[in-house]
Amino acid sequence: MGEATRRTVLKGGLTATAVGALGFSSARSAAAATTPTIHSTAEWNARPASGAIVVENHKPTYIVVHHTVDPGNNTDYSLAHALQISRDIQNFHMDTRGWIDTGQQFTNSRGGFVTEGRHRSLEILRGGKQHVQGANVGNHNSECLGIENEGLYSTVDVPVALWNSLVQLIAYIAHQYGITPEFIKGHRDFNSTECCGQVLYDRLPELRTAVGQQLGLSVARLEAPEWPLLKPGDTGPQVMTAQRFLRAAGFGVPTDGVFGTATAAAVSALAAEHGLSRDSCTAARASDESGYLGSDVWPLIVPRGRSAAAWRSELSKE
């Protein structure tokens, strides 16, 4: 997938608009939003971008949480290390992904140091009216501001320093743009990826609450669960339901409730057919995610006639 594909309607039932996201007055929470220290691209000696930085003439709708996967759960919590991983991420995104610059707007280290990712992200955030387009959420980069959190959080929790800096950073971003905590999402809420790691993803409700407390806001209940993420090796009723839907879409998969090779191949083929991103984040370096069935695949296979929210609620009961 290239740099970004602008979409005015979000797939997978994420139907909130920018107007809906701007749910509070920034003046109301000015006293609660602490300005974090964010180390600029100049401070970590970033390479110049290889193309023009796109500045969207609107605010982002979503704040999206990622994990870097590589370098894993390092025990070097120094500022020097935080600046080095920013250089490493930029090199990977430019030299391997072929992007013009770092994909995410900001990076948060295990030591709690925050750096600017893509050039101009800090400048534009301070203005509070526009949005630097990144390359971290496939097909949704016009609407999303991404934060990479150093480490791999599939089975272990984040360090306290990282958590605290993440809460402070998101509260500041939300304050600047008038984004309510309900619009804090994980990468998997947009693409079929394990990112931001199961452990960190499970803490998103807690993160929304913590950010709300920083801003003096109550957090509204989400209208429905998110789409489930299914992976090769999974078993159960949700897998069987997905297999039935895939068969109805013309794929010759079994309906045994086992996410095996045939099911993964069908999902990969469907994703390729619809141009879905499978490498929009460094999470894909941990494992092959090409056969994952998540938020961007479900809307392609669920029968029509019911809303996305209704289907998500139904699937959550299986």
TrEMBL record:
<protein>
    <submittedName>
        <fullName>N-acetylmuramoyl-L-alanine amidase</fullName>
    </submittedName>
</protein>
<dbReference type="InterPro" id="IPR015510">
    <property type="entry name" value="PGRP"/>
</dbReference>
<dbReference type="InterPro" id="IPR002477">
    <property type="entry name" value="Peptidoglycan-bd-like"/>
</dbReference>
<feature type="domain" description="Peptidoglycan recognition protein family">
    <location>
        <begin position="36"/>
        <end position="191"/>
    </location>
</feature>
<dbReference type="InterPro" id="IPR006311">
    <property type="entry name" value="TAT_signal"/>
</dbReference>
<keyword id="KW-0732">Signal</keyword>
<dbReference type="InterPro" id="IPR036366">
    <property type="entry name" value="PGBDSf"/>
</dbReference>
<feature type="domain" description="N-acetylmuramoyl-L-alanine amidase">
    <location>
        <begin position="49"/>
        <end position="197"/>
    </location>
</feature>
<dbReference type="InterPro" id="IPR006619">
    <property type="entry name" value="PGRP_domain_met/bac"/>
</dbReference>
<dbReference type="Pfam" id="PF01510">
    <property type="entry name" value="Amidase_2"/>
</dbReference>
<dbReference type="Pfam" id="PF01471">
    <property type="entry name" value="PG_binding_1"/>
</dbReference>
<dbReference type="InterPro" id="IPR036365">
    <property type="entry name" value="PGBD-like_sf"/>
</dbReference>
<dbReference type="InterPro" id="IPR036505">
    <property type="entry name" value="Amidase/PGRP_sf"/>
</dbReference>
<comment type="similarity">
    <text>Belongs to the N-acetylmuramoyl-L-alanine amidase 2 family.</text>
</comment>
<feature type="signal peptide">
    <location>
        <begin position="1"/>
        <end position="32"/>
    </location>
</feature>
<dbReference type="InterPro" id="IPR002502">
    <property type="entry name" value="Amidase_domain"/>
</dbReference>
